[in-house]
Amino acid sequence: MSTTTRFIHQSKTPRIVFGRGRRREVAQELRALGVRAPLCVSSPGSAAAAAGVAVSLADGSLAPAATSDRARMHVPEHLVDEHMRIVEESGADSLVAVGGGSAIGLAKAVALRSGLPVVCLPTTYSGSEMTDVWGVTKRGEKRTGRDVRVLARVVVYDPELTDGLPRSVRGLSGLNAVAHAVEAIYAPDTSPLVAVTAGEAIAVMIRALRGLDGGWNDRDRDDALYASWLCGVCLDSTRMGLHHRLCHLLGGRFDTPHAATHALVLPFVLRHQEPGLSDAQRELMARSVNGGDVCTELLRLARAFGAPSDLRALGVGVDDLAPIARRLAQEPPSSDGPTGEKSLLALLRSLHRGRLPSPIGPGYDGRVSH
Known about the structure:
This protein has helices at residues 26-33, 47-59, 77-90, 101-114, 167-186, 192-210, 218-237, 242-254, 258-273, 279-287, 294-304, 321-330, 341-353; strands at residues 15-18, 38-41, 66-68, 94-99, 118-122, 133-138, 141-146, 154-157. A six-stranded parallel sheet has the order 1-8-5-4-2-3, sandwiched between helices. Helices cover 49% and strands 10% of the residues. The chain is globular, with a radius of gyration of 20 Å.
């Protein structure tokens, strides 16, 4: 991106504590915030990691006011209600989220209502820990918003918490993170700093994911978590566009798996956006795959890690496509690609078939050949 581009940039990042074994420092981070009795939340899959963090709190002469491993995808509103009651009954003065997007999303939703400070220990590459974005699902609709009250005060990135991730979870979560950086490159409110950060994040994460089949070492895992942090910075620094709007719509309406949905959708939406990309933006992304076609490589990685092959595998029927396109077209327009209902329907049809359109030129109008 040219340094003469008009832009506005504002940072509001949490305190970052990065390194192997640093989850053991959570107690001192809580003390520095002036709190001593957190509600620790996790999903069932990260309950063991959360139990380890609770032990480290005890070693630091602190104890959770309460614990819960009931977090789940898309943050159902009834779980937020339930955890607000836990806060009130236990006297919790803070929230510690151990896990991926489900646990962190639940902590944020509780923080939005309670005003309690949040400390995050990510176990995946979701990036949610770096943003002030919250989301809650009610009756099949996922509502999202931004509020400084949900922004984590401290994020502890300990790569040891990711060591036991299954291969598929690691790969799909990594691609979910890449989606944040990719969308930030061409977001209408991007900046030179965000573009450079996104380019680094995409290149490091793709390199790490390519090495997964060869057996990751500690450096690979450290690099992947470092890249996920940068992807989270990108997500927080720019407005979410078509990619995230579509994934949120699918997640709320069809209860689709979060990371897998992002991994499937990413290469198709990026292809859809290509007409509006500048040469510099194209070059930045191509550099991450050594000059190749980034969409093709992202699709290859998604399928290698077990992402759904198409929208049909997520339970989306052909009759669902037109209503989805109509809903997307009705949302506030942005300058990140063709946004007409016909072009969006073409995008959805290619996603429904699972066939990535060929690279296109500047004159592309969003139509896909059948």
